[in-house]
Amino acid sequence: MRELVEKCGGFMGACDSYDRSRVVLVGAPMDYTVSFRPGTRQGPDRIRSVSVGLEEYSCYFDRDLTDYAYVDLGNIILPFGRVRESLRRIGAVTGEILRDGKLPLVLGGEHLISLPVIEQAAALYPGLAVIQFDAHADLREDYQGESLSHATVMRQVAAVVGASNVYQLGIRSGTRAEFAYARDNTNLFTDLAAPLASIRHELAGQPVYVTLDIDVVDPAYAPGTGTPEPGGCTSAEIISALHQLEGLQVVGFDLVEVSPVYDHSERTALLAAKLVREAILCFEVRKNALIR
Asked: What are the tens digits of pLDDT across the range 156-178?
């Protein structure tokens, strides 16, 4: 695994011990299939660099990152433009993390990077459900003739875990065909808060993977993304939605589509970094936390 990863500046408070860590951060700086504005390959490093502007303490949970051991391995080395080989490498690295009994927290990169991580998680955890926070359905069979795209990723995921195990929240953009497919196959919701209580109950005890596309947030709050879509939630609402997943058996998490070049204020990356902090504190099992 280590030969496929390049060390870089780490997320705030990360330790240097893989063995002692349950949560493992890794970057997947790929943006080869983006359809509007490229730049998400810069996302992982910018999320890390702005994280130092945040506190390690979460007032929401009354928990502190200093009470946990989590490691940031750096970025997966990806051959530019080679989509399938890049996905293979992402799967190889995150698969090893999963098999070691750890929780991968993957920083994208475009949304297609979620596919190999979910494939690895599904192989290890039968009955895996996927919760997607996103502005876009991403359910196309192909985009401009290409079946592997950030616009097709959830259709690919549905083929892996079963469409009925896909829960799509905050969706407000897609083709007519995508919404028709979702009505018949997945669990699609245009809002966040209302469906989460029933989803939590339905998925109790079931392994869950969470993928969060930052464009689920309205571009007024998160303009730094490749395909901004007006009409989304606020920063506070996505933080609250993430908190509502506490208690689920979350086995993996990714945060994708942060594109820093379109946000000179860095508020998109700052929101992403805060969500990463909250995810660590939300999905870590406290009784298994390793005090440093």
From this structure: 999 999 999 999 999 999 999 99
According to DSSP, the residues that pair with 1 across neighbouring strands are none
Q: What are phi and psi of 253, to 5 degrees?
A: -150, 140
Is residue 255's pLDDT more than 90?
Answer: yes
Reported pTM: 0.95
Residues 6+ apart with CB under 8 A from 184: none
Cα dihedral 153, 132, 137, 39 sign? negative
Closest CA to 158 of 134, 135, 137: 137
In terms of CATH, what superfamily is 2-288?
Answer: Ureohydrolase domain (3.40.800.10)
Which stretches does DSSP call E strand in 123-269? 129-133, 166-169, 187-189, 207-213, 249-256
pLDDT of res. 286 = 40
> In the chain, where are the structural domains located?
2-288
Pair 148, 83: CB distance under 8 Å: yes
